[in-house]
Amino acid sequence: MSWPEARRRAHEAGAAAALPVAEVPLESADGRTLARPLAPLTDLPAFRTSSVDGWAVRGPGPWRIVGRALAGAVSAPLPEAGTAVEIATGAMLPDGADAVLRVEESTRSADGLVEGRLRGTPEWRSPGEEARAGEELLPAGTPVDPAVIGLAASCGHDRLAVRRAPRAALLVFGDELLTAGPPGDGRVRDALGPAVPAWLRRYGCDIGPADFTGPVADTLPAHVDALRAALAGADLVCTTGGTMHGPVDHLHPALDALGAEYVVNTVAVRPGFPMLVARVSGADGRARFVAGLPGNPQSAIVALVSLVAPLLAGLQGRAQPELPAVTLAEPVPGRGESTHLALVRVDPRDNTARPVRHVGSAMLRGLALADGFAVIAPGAEGAPGDAVPLVPLPPRQGVVR
């Protein structure tokens, strides 16, 4: 299957099984996805508010001071022309006020009257200036971040309808793997067990230490049991290794034993082509997913950004993200009839991308220095000056839950 088609199918499968909606307090909504459009409960602003410190006045000056208007309170109306109240920025204009005089452009006469020249434009924010009550400000599917939370609060909301965070689990296959200490004596250190959960959290998943199992014994019954147990509590189970058909690769037979249906099974992409996504129906009739990541570490991350990221976007009710473009600063080879995902570092000053070194399928050194993967189309080479899509890696900042 072509790489673009595989991504499309993964996203559509996730969207068809979009996660349930929950109403959560604003402080718990960060990182979730709006399940309904965001609209204000009142006009924004809800009433006329002064945009400066000064005097709210009625009629021509000079003006007699009759009170004070502070933010958070309703002041008495201005009774007649020639009256004024001292007003603070953000305070509600009293009824009868037809202008605001800036404090720095005002003076006080000897008998206590306020004088000054009014500007020709209003010095207040009008009701509905930002939005009208019920107006759609953000559509469903918008990721919730601090800016969205602040906007929701300003609209009068205490809670938001969001998609539940995907619950994920990780199974690591391979008797050759060590979980502690340096590699040696024919065994290699498992790099994906510690790393993949952190990647999944950056894609919005709920996954903790108890959701990791491995290494799972290289037998078919052990694979079936581990998958069945993980699927009982997760929306997505990622596995590492076993995606080929070697003598100890049991993932495909295990999926068959569980009645799984392939969404994607191998992709024309290098590195990482033996990747897969399969759908398993739970006892409750809701779909769960297994994402088979290759055992080579860099190939596993290629599968993660290629298939798992769009699948999770669909599950969270989000559109598949558009890939930004970068300009190649150096040549990048093609990979024949397969899409080539080449690790690159992006210079933010001019948006140019340069390949990094140490990018073998089993290597992670290059990945630790990269910003994403430049996409070289099948049958093509990347030449300096070419604009190509970039699959960005998730933000490097940690996710605290």
Short description:
The chain is built from seven helices and 24 strands.
Give the CATH superfamily of the largest domain.
MoaB/Mog-like domain
Low-confidence blocks of residues: none
Radius of gyration: 30 Å
Physical arrangement of strands within the biggest beta sheet = 14-11-15-19-18-16
Q: Per CATH, what is the topology of the largest domain? A: Molybdenum Cofactor Biosythetic Enzyme, Chain A
* Largest sheet report: 6 strands, mixed
Describe the 3D structure.
- The protein is elongated and about 100 Å long.
- By secondary structure, the chain is α/β, with parallel strands linked by helices.
- Helices cover 19% and strands 27% of the residues.
- A 6-stranded mixed β-sheet has the order 14-11-15-19-18-16, sandwiched between helices.
- Helix 1 (3-16) crosses helix 6 and helix 4 (220-231) packs across helix 5 (251-257).
- The two termini are 37 Å apart.
- The chain is built from 7 helices and 24 strands.
- It folds into 4 domains: 3-19 and 165-315, Molybdenum Cofactor Biosythetic Enzyme, Chain A (3-Layer(aba) Sandwich), CATH 3.40.980; 22-43 and 129-163, Molybdopterin biosynthesis moea protein, domain 2 (Alpha-Beta Complex), CATH 3.90.105; 49-125, Beta Complex (Molybdopterin biosynthesis moeA protein, domain 3), CATH 2.170.190; 325-392, Beta-clip (Beta Barrel).
- The mean pLDDT is 94.
Structural descriptors:
six-stranded mixed β-sheet, Molybdopterin biosynthesis moeA protein, domain 3, 401 residues, Molybdenum Cofactor Biosythetic Enzyme, Chain A, alpha/beta, five-stranded mixed barrel, Molybdopterin biosynthesis moea protein, domain 2
